[in-house]
Amino acid sequence: MSDAPHPADPHADSSAEASAHRADLGKDPSRVSGMFDEVAARYDRTNTVLSLGQDRLWRIAATRAVAPRPGQRILDLAAGTGASSVALARSGAEVVAGDFSPGMIAEGRRRHGHVTNVTFVEADAMALPFSDGEFDTVTISFGLRNVNDPRAALAEMRRVTAPGGRLVICEFSHPQSAAFAALYGFYNDRVLPIVARAVSSNADAYDYLNESIRDWPDQVTLSGWIRDAGWGNVAHRDLTGGIVALHRAINPATPTVPSPA
């Protein structure tokens, strides 16, 4: 899920430095990766503060949807520091924690390197370094919207999933209630930036993340993208009023031809 460019002049002003560590909606992989490198150490704590503790409930819901079992091989993409991977590994499953940020992978190994059934791997979701059909389940939480080409990533996830295997995506989405959507928008636009500047090592990163949430398609559109990548039995359910949606799908045992983009 390379390092971000740094200012050539060590005395460059703070705005230039912030720009070097701030991705934009073009989602250049090196800038997105570098941005996550920058926030790796405080990432989990910051997310808990900004989500008012809801992030832990969302990850519990994703773990339950994956329903890991001993002997399974699970790919956890956008694994970050590995908190979700460790939760999956408690079942006895073999978990590969993949992320395209070297900083996140390093932090994950530092925190969880002692967990024998979790392996940390630097991995780009659009070109996964794994064999066809290698995993029983592929899951990604809060990372698909940061991929340069999410549709290509969905196809890659299917390639590395065994026939009959499962996909679980936990991602920000769009509240269906107009009143709740307005309240959520106010929090993201007015409150979140202030809190992010108080608790994050790179508040500009959270400006990008906020923009990426607003730009991300709704539940029905993402479900369509999943079907277009050849997945079957596609379904979703809303969490926290639609702030987050949990998408599930099955890799058909009989190969299907993905719909044209």
CATH architecture: 3-Layer(aba) Sandwich
Number of helices: 10
Under CATH, the topology can be stated as Rossmann fold
Just give the CATH class: Alpha Beta
On the 0-100 scale, what is the average pLDDT? 82
CATH superfamily: Vaccinia Virus protein VP39
**H/E element order:** HHHHEHEHEEHEHHHEE
What oligomerization state is this entry in? single chain
The poorly predicted ranges are 1-23
Helix content: 40-55%
Can you summarize the main beta sheet?
A: 7 strands, mixed
* Cα-atom radius of gyration: 18 Å
Spatially, the strands of the biggest sheet line up as: 3-2-1-4-5-7-6
* Number of DSSP E strands: 7
Shape: globular
User: Termini separation (Å)?
Assistant: 22 Å
In terms of topology, how is this protein built?
Elements: H1 14-20, H2 29-39, H3 43-50, H4 54-66, E1 73-77, H5 83-89, E2 94-99, H6 102-112, E3 118-122, E4 135-141, H7 150-159, E5 161-172, H8 178-199, H9 203-215, H10 219-228, E6 232-239, E7 244-250
Parallel strand pairs: 1-2, 1-4, 2-3, 4-5
Antiparallel strand pairs: 5-7, 6-7
Helix pairs in contact: 8-9
